[in-house]
Design brief:
- This protein is α+β, with helices and mostly antiparallel strands and about 120 residues long.
- The chain has one domain.
- Helices cover about 45% and strands about 20% of the residues.
- It contains five helices and five strands; from the N terminus they run αβββββαααα.
- The strands form two sheets. A three-stranded antiparallel β-sheet has the order 1-2-5. Strands 3-4 form a two-stranded antiparallel sheet.
- Strand 1 (about 15-20) and strand 2 form a beta hairpin.
- Helix 2 runs antiparallel to helix 3 and helix 3 packs antiparallel against helix 4 (about 105-120).
- The longest helix is centred in the C-terminal third of the chain and has 14 residues, at about 85-100.
- The chain is globular and about 35 Å long.
- Residues about 1-10 have low confidence and may be disordered.
Length: about 120
């Protein structure tokens, strides 16, 4: 479908699937393989669903849920959802993956601080 191709290209390998509550959900159309800071490789499987970066609704005008940080956000959510490794390692990997994808340092630091501060309740649930 042409619309699906446009969305996949626009959102870096993610296919829009539906709206849930006040946000869109996207499905990964091909696996992502990333190297973690500890040297291990992780594969985020095709079909993984994401809502993008977990940005509070009142800040989405400034920091949209999708951007250069989308792949790092998806991988970070996958690590949290599956309790892979430690929370500290997941947060550090998130920062490193954003920087590798060209996210400016100030924004990568800001997003990482946000997950360090706000991520505890997600990791523990």
């Amino acid at each position: 479908m042409i619309l699906e191709f446009i969305i996949e290209t626009r959102h870096r390998g993610l296919l829009f699937i539906k709206w849930q509550a006040d946000q869109p959900l996207y499905k990964l159309v091909e696996p992502i393989i990333l190297r973690r800071s500890n040297g291990e490789w992780i594969t985020i499987p095709k079909g993984t669903v994401t809502d993008g970066a977990s940005v509070p609704w009142m800040l989405r005008w400034l920091f949209p849920q999708m951007g250069k940080y989308s792949k790092a956000s998806l991988a970070h959510d996958y690590l949290y959802d599956n309790r892979i490794g430690s929370r500290a390692d997941a947060d550090w990997d998130f920062y490193l993956w954003m920087r590798q994808d060209g996210v400016p340092q100030w924004k990568a630091v800001l997003f990482t601080l946000a997950v360090v501060i706000g991520g505890k309740r997600w990791w523990e649930t």
